[in-house]
Specification:
LysR_subst-bd, two-stranded antiparallel ribbon, about 40% helix, Arc Repressor Mutant, subunit A, D-Maltodextrin-Binding Protein, domain 2, about 280 residues, alpha/beta, 8 helices
């Protein structure tokens, strides 16, 4: 008889394409994932994965087991829920650290209220998650997603800075500025490429670990910074200036998900429709 837990580990390995990523997702050691897969292979008398330096790839038997295993685990979950009315379904949520979650708090509330049986818990990495609010550039092909927002970047300076009277600046204005570095920026290389093309050398005065800290350092007069639009706040000491570029640099914030409980599918679709409606309102302004 096949146990349920090894099937969970097998599914994680299948979806991640990596033993390491599967272990991270399941909060266990790599040998435990390997042991579970070998145990299944021994019980079924088949090889489930082809192994290489690039990772693992499912065999025909692995593809077959994946479909059967996902159906079985879903039925198992539904069976438990039917006879345990107050039971909670654990859902792991990842929120990218440099995304201002306050901008998307209504999404979290919508999920919580539309599916009381869901227990949301925060995880440290996207590999461990079933649901994520994340920059699309950082998302693996293992996820589906719905777009929430398209964010542009702005230059933030103190109100007494020489550029504070400007509503727009070009990259050439960066030449004589001292910046607080944002090392976690997903578009950092794009900015660097554009400044290099214009022979602009960026001077950094230090690094920040999150965008609220960046704005605090700017307020103290320790430099200027480039931050995404969602972190713009009402602050009389700071000025946010649009950056004029031939090709605007933006990041796409998405609600990403793997296989979800049925109760959440319609909620995700509703969130997408609402985001599209908001986009139309913004474009008409």
């Amino acid at each position: 008889m096949i146990e349920v837990k090894p099937l969970h580990y097998f599914i994680a390995a299948y979806e991640e394409g990596s033993i390491t990523a599967a272990a991270l997702r399941c909060f266990i050691s790599q040998p435990s994932i390997t042991h579970a897969i070998k145990s299944l292979e021994s019980s079924l008398g088949v090889i489930l994965f082809e192994r290489s330096k690039q990772g693992i790839r499912p065999t025909i038997e692995g593809e077959k087991l994946y479909k059967l295993a996902t159906d079985l685990l879903l039925q198992n979950q539904q069976l438990e829920a039917a006879f345990t009315p107050n039971s909670k379904v654990e859902l792991h949520l990842y929120i990218q650290p440099d995304i201002n979650i306050e901008q998307y708090s209504d999404i979290i509330e919508t999920i919580k209220h539309s599916a009381p049986s869901i227990n949301l818990s925060i995880v440290d990495s996207v590999e461990q998650s079933q649901l994520a609010i994340i920059d699309e550039q950082l998302l693996s092909s293992k996820f589906q997603f719905k777009r929430l927002n398209q964010e542009s970047y702005k230059l933030v300076v103190r109100r007494d800075h020489a550029l504070a009277n400007n509503n727009k600046v070009r990259l050439e204005s960066f030449k004589d500025l001292e910046f607080i570095e944002r090392p976690y920026c997903t578009n950092r290389k794009v900015f660097e490429r554009l400044t290099n093309e214009k022979n602009i050398t960026i001077t950094y005065k230090g690094k920040a670990i999150h965008d609220l800290q960046i704005q605090g350092l700017v307020k103290l007069g320790l430099g200027v910074a480039v931050i995404p639009g969602s972190y713009i706040q009402q602050d009389h000491d700071l000025k946010y200036i649009s950056i004029v570029l031939d090709t605007p640099i933006t990041r796409s914030i998405v609600l990403a998900y793997r296989k979800l409980p049925n109760v959440l599918i319609k909620t995700i679709e509703a969130i997408q429709h609402r985001s599209m409606a908001l986009d139309k309102v913004k474009s008409s302004d």
